[in-house]
């Protein structure tokens, strides 16, 4: 496993981060795995050298944090791992149980620490931009949380570049603890951040950690798979269906995989080919290493619900350069299709004012 600095900070993280939204309480989302099923994945990631783990207070109403915390206590040494968690989305019915107000952030960090079973979080992420709270209040509170020792570093997620820039400028001007990374959706079928966010992060020395590098499984050929996730994940439908460029990109990936004998996930009983075969794994690697190969990207954050998926992802982050061995013609084929680099409307940034914010759908 390769380890890299997170932005200009001194914090080093594994090139792969295990996203833990998939682990928690199935009553929250039918495709979520319970603790017994989740623990082997966390153990396998640790055994492969993964040190970076990402969760959030909203995932399974906090159960994801509890499961991750217990697993890391059992399988790892606290100082050897980097734990990221997030705050913003509703954690209760009250009007102050959401957003980035001082009241909610102070309550949220204490609740997350209790669920994780630790006295500090390595990376505290604001899950969205809060249009209802002055940024002065949010950033002063985050700075105080860092100074209290409860959080080591700060990060942000899924917002417009102009919103992020305003916050960075305020932090710099007032000498506050600074965001060291941005977590945003980035894959072959979601390349919006190439327009503004990625250049901003490069210029400001901010680490960039893409989530959903497989496009919620679409790039792995999971659409039509006989799984609970494929049949119940409405976010995949609402985000990607009806976009011609998405369909064209997915088809280009399918053709590249087929040429190398790699069947789509929908045709496989729990795995995606023999990961030991360079020929069969090349096209699979191209999907997840796309964001990792960008010089502006720090690491990728896949979520794994199949043991073989964990192994393939770990090889992509290996220090032996597996991600760089994707054949040039495979990569060129992906680039022939417009990956959907289109300006977003200003009312939503993946998307704070959408059904996700209102609690109808789960959050990334």
Count the beta strands. Answer: 9
> What's the CATH class of the domain at 3-216 and 294-321, please?
Alpha Beta
Question: What is the CA–CA distance across the termini?
Answer: 25 Å
CATH architecture of the domain at 3-216 and 294-321: Alpha-Beta Barrel
Shape: globular
Instruction: Give the structural class.
Output: alpha/beta
Strand order of the largest sheet: 3-4-5-6-7-8-9
CATH superfamily of the domain at 3-216 and 294-321: NADP-dependent oxidoreductase domain
Order of helices and strands: EEEHEHEHEHEHEHEHHHHHH
What is the CATH topology of the domain at 3-216 and 294-321?
TIM Barrel
Unreliable stretches: 268-284, 320-324, 339-363
Main sheet overview: 7 strands, parallel
**What is the residue-averaged pLDDT?**
81
Instruction: Tell me the Rg in angstroms.
Output: 19 Å
Could you estimate the helical fraction of the residues in percent? 25-40%
Number of helices: 12
How large a portion of the residues is in β-strands, by DSSP E?
5-15%
